[in-house]
Amino acid sequence: MRAQFVLSEIGVGLRRNLTMTFAVIVSVALSLALFGGSLLMSDQVNTMKGYWYDKVNVSIFLCNKSDAESDPNCAKGAVTEDQKSQILADLKKMSVVDTVTYESQDEAYKHYKEQFGDSPLASSLTPDQMQESYRIKLKNPEKYQVIATAFDGRDGVQSVQDQKGILDNLFELLNGMNWAARAIMALMLVVALMLIVNTVRVSAFSRRRETGIMRLVGASGFYIQAPFIAEAAVAGLIGGTLACAFLLIARYFIIDHGLALSEKLNLINFIGWDAVLAKLPLILATSLLMPALAAFFALRKYLKV
Known about the structure:
With 305 residues, the protein is α+β, with helices and mostly antiparallel strands.
């Protein structure tokens, strides 16, 4: 097979169907940009989970005098020193516990003022209304239920709260957004495949005389099909290159510069450039193989070779 002939046929085919080729490039670029974005979103969620789950605490809030009057869990009165000592001793015996930190009412009041000092409620609170608590860091954040079972309902304990539950709601939202992006990506891929098949069909129809002559002179099926497959592959590769550019630009302007989320949201551990660069070969390979395979199967059905 002469490479020069194949390359010239690719150029002719792309110029003949310029509008449809442009549509293929745009649809492939958008669908693969969404594909890469969904992969990066999954990496980001997993990175955030690993970062935050390692920092979450289980909090055991102890009854105070106000709770003894209003909370059924504290019906037996405010926590006593003996009860606090027993709770601490039991916590230290548990194998799932890594560290235990005690927070007094004064410390709780100080932290509340630091975080919510501007709220109207802050001015009416006093330290004796705050709850003492034990903040427990677990060796495995998934073992929260062990603490809850052991201390929920015990005398002097108002409640056992797991910060992981709050994070789970956030991660469920992020995962939902990620699945929505994947659904749109799948729709765009279907559109791209339909455009590729249609473009190949139109190109094959417009060159039916040339392909007929090639069949008469004994050209092989692959020799006739190769320019059409290559056209689709080139258009897809251009789209894939644009998708890679979109991801790089988005990472640069959204996280590092422009919106600069890495500076504004210091509490979030954003994925690095290595994660983005690792996805680019997959996107380029998909952009090359997906149109080529679509063209190959379209030609088997619509081009009699």
